[in-house]
Every structure is written in C-alpha cells, then in structure tokens.
Design a protein that fits this description.
3-stranded mixed beta sheet; 3 strands; 153 residues; 48% helix; GMP Synthetase, Chain A, domain 3; mainly alpha; elongated
C-alpha cells in the first residue's frame, strides 16, 4: 500500500540555495529513482556538514521515492518533529536545491517497520568518523580480531 504523506510535513522545502541560478533550475533534467537516491545521499552529507545532529536524524530516515516535485522520506514522529523545525527545514532546503538543481518538497511519511532500512556504506560514514576523530583529537586504534584475541591469552 502506498505510504500516506503526513500533512504537517508536506510543506515545500524552501528557500533556493544562495548560489542557485533560476535559469539553471528550470533546465534540470528528469531524474530516475536511483539517481534521486544518490542525490539524497549527497544532501545528507551536506546537512551533516552544516548541522551534524540534524544530519544524524535525517540519516536514520529512509529515502522512499522521488515523485514529481517531492522527495518522499520515511521517518518516525520524533525525527519528523526535528525535520519540521523552521531552521532545520531551511538547511535541508538549501542542500536539496544545490544537489537536485531545483526546489523540491520534502514529504515525510510514516516509517513502516516492515521495510528494512538501507545500511550506510563506509564511503557515506567515513567523513563523519574523520570529523569525530579530529574533534576529539583522537587516533585510530587497531583492535585484534577474535582469533588473535584468544591466541594471545
């Protein structure tokens, strides 16, 4: 059954990115589902760079589809409440318009527990891990694997 958009979250994602040219936005080509999902992943990275907590909340949501002028994202009510905050919507709007080349609505739908969430790839989380290491002035520690751990005992 198709997911029903929540009324409070179907508001347009606005404003346009600061550097977006209106003519370029009108010429944006149609997107297939795979390309739209890849661009959404780029939006997540951009949001994470601007506001890590918001990026973390969005990364726990699931990209469902790209339909006309809307990105359909599944999330629970707590995550939707964070996304719906005015300042957070503005950050998302900027990233969406920069990545997709046009204004799009962000339609938040209930997250269906039966649909598994896609696991993040190493490429997607590496920038976040690197920032955390730098933030805490840390260093990478190699831990022994289970077989090596038992051999040294």
């Amino acid at each position: 059954a198709p997911a029903r958009p929540m009324a409070a979250s179907a508001a347009p994602v606005r404003p346009l990115a600061e550097n977006a040219a209106p003519a370029a936005l009108a010429e944006a080509p149609p997107l297939d589902a795979e390309r739209a999902e890849a661009l959404w992943s780029e939006v997540l990275v951009g949001v994470m760079n601007r506001k890590p907590l918001l990026g973390a909340f969005l990364s726990e949501s699931v990209f469902r589809s790209f339909e006309g002028d809307a990105l359909v994202i599944a999330m629970d009510d707590l995550h939707r409440a964070v996304v719906d905050e005015k300042d957070n919507r503005a950050i998302i709007a900027i990233e969406v318009s920069q990545r997709f080349g046009r204004d799009l609505r962000l339609s938040c739908v209930p997250q269906d527990a039966a649909v598994p969430r896609r696991a993040s790839t190493l490429e997607e989380v590496k920038p976040q891990v690197d920032r955390a290491i730098a933030w805490f002035d840390g260093e990478v520690i190699k831990r022994p694997t289970r077989g090596q751990e038992n051999a040294s005992s």
